[in-house]
Amino acid sequence: MTQLRIPAVYMRGGTSKGVFFLRDDLPTDPAARDRLLLRVIGSPDPYGKHIDGMGGATSSTSKVVIINKSQRPDCDVDYLFGALSVSRADIDWSGNCGNLSAAVGPFAISAGLVAAPIEGCGWTTVRIWQANIGKVIVSHVQMKDGEVLEEGDFELDGVTFPAAEIKLEFLDPAADEGDGGAMFPTGHVRDTLDVPGVGKVEATLINAGLPTVFVAATSLGFTGTELQADINSNPERLARAEAVRMAGAQAMGIAATPGSHTPKIAFVAAPADYTASDGKAVRGADINLLARIFSMGPLHHAMTGTGAVAIATAVAIPGTLPAQVARPSDDGWVRFGHPSGTLAVGAEAQEIDGQWVVSKAMMSRSARRLMEGWVRVPAI
Q1: Distance of CA 71 to CAs 48, 75, 211, Å?
Q2: Is the confidence at residue 180, as pLDDT, over 60?
Q3: Where are the domains of the chain?
Q4: Residues paired with 265 in a beta bridge
């Protein structure tokens, strides 16, 4: 039987990779679409390797993105993100990928969905409707002679090679009260979770960028300087973090399942010296706090983009756990240490009538087309 051939682009965005599609090239029926996307990535894979697909068998590389020209007057394109389980036939559409958000603008421009200057050098702005969470992302993409500029000298810890900088603004990143959520779903900047098998754990439960459970590193038995191997090789540590995440999900009113995309759990600590995964020394004096995040089970090798948004938002609001451990910033940007190095992220927050409002979170990433053409899958 002849395989199906679907136009696709394989892209890196931030510290993630995924397969990008135009919506019109995929089945309109959601169930048929999901079956096809699972086969493209190679899930479910009982061997946990994604040998027979485009996935990379990690939460950072088992991803798909669907783009179409937006009908919204304030946006250029709609962006839908799917996180695929490696071992289960499941696609989680509950949240955004902040890292792959960096690749949406370049993809949209290259696909002809957004007008861009055809001469000279400069920046093109792409307004993106993030369909999973109903928020606007503004992407500023560098151009050269009508093409997206992909090569450059911007270095992103967790990514091997430098590339052109892409500036992202996540507008109004916190959940809206009218949408059945809130920045702090429990109404508190701190809560105490009663976690089976763990005990009482103090946490900040915040919905900004993505629902996130923040805990102090010490409450999980960590120091805050851990790398992937220190945690992912220890089933007891992973189970403890997952138990806290599930308790946090329940408190936030989220129907999470083990290893689901949302909510995330992250642990924070005061600045300290450590050696990053590439051997580079990170000085505590150069950062505002330490942060690590789990993604669909294991510890992330760097930091999720939505986790960075949540960190910037939480640090900007007094009383949260991240704000408590963070060293004050002189310029409004938070620089935190993660397993692969450091990252700077900013947030604009103000208190209005006793409520904290975050107008936007900002960060720089990079993105690059790795392969373009078609993916092939057996007829399903």
Answers
A1: 39, 8, 27
A2: no
A3: 4-175+366-377, 181-346
A4: 213, 294
Segment 243-256 mean pLDDT: 95
What is the reported pTM? Answer: 0.93
Query: CATH for 4-175+366-377?
Result: 3.10.310.10
Cis peptide before 263, with omega less than 30 degrees from 0? yes
Q: Where are the alpha helices (DSSP H) in the chain?
A: 30-41, 101-110, 228-232, 235-252, 305-315, 321-325
In degrees, to the nearest 5, what angle opens at C-alpha 70 toward C-alphas 68 and 71? 135
* Confidence class for position 356, pLDDT limits 50, 70, 90: confident
Of 210, 138, 144, 166, whose CA–CA distance to 360 is shortest? 138
> What b/e string do you get for 187-202 counting C-beta neighbours within 10 Å, with b at 16 or more?
eebebebebeebeebe
Average pLDDT, the chain: 95
Write down the CATH superfamily of domain 181-346.
Answer: Diaminopimelate Epimerase; Chain A, domain 1 (3.10.310.10)
- pLDDT tens, residue by residue, 1-29: 689 999 999 999 999 999 999 999 999 99
What are the Cα distances from residue 132, in Å, to 65, 129, 282, 377? 11, 9, 35, 26
Structure tokens given for 314: 């939480």
106-119 per-position pLDDT tens digit:
999 999 999 888 77
Q: Is the pLDDT of residue 219 over 80?
A: yes
Residue 71: pLDDT band by 50, 70, 90 thresholds? very high
Q: How far apart are the first and last CA of the chain?
A: 11
Contact 194/200 with Cβ under 8 angstroms?
A: yes
Phi and psi torsions of 164, nearest 5°: -75, 140
Q: How many residues does the chain have?
A: 380
Joined tokens for residue 16 = 């993630």
Query: Fold identical between 4-175+366-377 and 181-346?
Result: yes
